[in-house]
Amino acid sequence: MPSSSCLRRIQSGLIALALSCVAVPALAQADRCPKLVAEAPARIIPAAFRLPAAPQEALFRLAAGASDEVTLNYIGHSTFLIETAGGVTVATDYNDYVHPDVVPRVATMNRAHSTHYSLNPDPGIEYVLKGWSDTPGQPARYDLDVGDLWVGNLATNTRDWEGGTTRNGNSIFVFRAADLCIAHLGHLHHTLTEDDIAALGRIDVVLAPVDGSYTLDVDGMVEVLRSLESPLVIPMHYFNETTLNAFLNRLGAREFVVERNASSTLSVSRESLPGKPTVIVLPQR
Fold first, then answer.
1. Cα separation of 252 and 258, whole Å?
2. How is domain 43-281 classified at the architecture level of CATH?
3. Which of 30, 27, 86, 70 is nearest to 179 (CA)?
4. Which of 217, 223, 231 lies closest to 273 in space, CA to CA?
C-alpha cells in the first residue's frame, strides 16, 4: 500500500494535470483586473469643478497616493478621451468623424461602422489598436503597457449584414490605470458568458452602448451590466434623449442610482467609486 507521502504526491500531480487542461481566456492571464470589491463610497468629482489644491495639500495627496485618478472626457458617439495621472491619453473607437482635438498616444478601434474606426488614423498616434484581427475568425490580442496605463482586450462576436455571425469581429478594450479597471464595451452585439465575465475580472467603470438596436437591445445591455457588477456605468452610443431614456427607464431604480453630469468630463479615482451601482450620464460635446 502506498505511503501517505506518496499518495499526497500523486494527488498533487493529478490536480496539476487537471488545471493544465482548463482553458483560461487570454485577458485573464495578465491578471491585471482581479475581482475586488470597491471600498468606502465617496463622491465622483467632475473635473470641470475641481478647485486647484494648495502646494502643501497637493504634496500631501501625492504622498498619500490620493492624486491617482483617471479623467474621462466624452467626445461623443462611442469616443472617449481617457487621460491617466501620468499623462497617457487614449481615444476609444477612434474615427474620422468624432474624435478629440488632441492627438492621443493610444487609439482603439472597432469596425462595426465607419464611426468606430479610421482607415487613416493620425500618424502622430503612437499605438493604433484594432479590435479585430486581419486573419478572419481569429481574435485580436493585446497586452500593452504604456507609461502608467495597461491595455488588454476581450474579443467579441458581431452580426453581419446578412444576419449571420462574424466570430471575434470586435473587442471589449480594458484599460487599467490608478488601480482602476475601465471597460469600453465597443459595439457589443451579444450578452456575455460566464467565461467572458471571468476573463474581464473586476471592472470598476463600464462605458456602455445603450442605443438598444444597432448594438444590444436594452434588456440585453441591462443583463450585461448586472453581470459585470461594476460600481460606475457611463452610457454612450445613444443618438438622442429618447434612446437614452429608454435605457435609463429600464434600469431598476433600486439597483442603480442615475445621475446627470453638467460637464462632459469626469475624474474618477478608486476612493471616489460609489458604494451602490451608479449610472452617470455625460453630455456629448
1. 10
2. 4-Layer Sandwich (3.60)
3. 70
4. 231
Other CB atoms within a 10 A radius of the CB of residue 86 amount to 12
DSSP 4: H
Three-class SS state of 58: helix
CA distance 275 to 179: 17
> Could you tell me how many residues make up the chain?
285
| pTM attached to this predicted model | 0.78
Mind listing the pLDDT tens digit for each residue in 245-254? 999 999 877 8
* Crossing angle between the packed helical segments 218-228 and 241-250, to the nearest 10 degrees: 50
Domain boundaries, the chain: 43-281
b/e 62-85 (16+ beta carbons within 10 angstroms → b): eeeeeebbbbbbbbbbbbbbbbbb
Per-residue cell: 64? 498619500
Separation between Cα atoms, residue 135 and residue 164, nearest integer Å? 18
pLDDT digits (tens, 9 = 90+) for 148-194: 999 999 988 776 666 676 777 789 999 999 999 999 998 887 889 99
Q: Could you tell me which of 205, 208, 153 has the C-alpha nearest to residue 38?
A: 205
CB 83 within 8 A of CB 101: no
Q: Which residues pair with 108 in a beta bridge?
A: 129
Give the DSSP per-residue string, 111-170: -SSGGG--SS--TT-SEEEESS-SSTTPPP--EEEETTEEEEEEEEEEE-TTS-EEEEEE
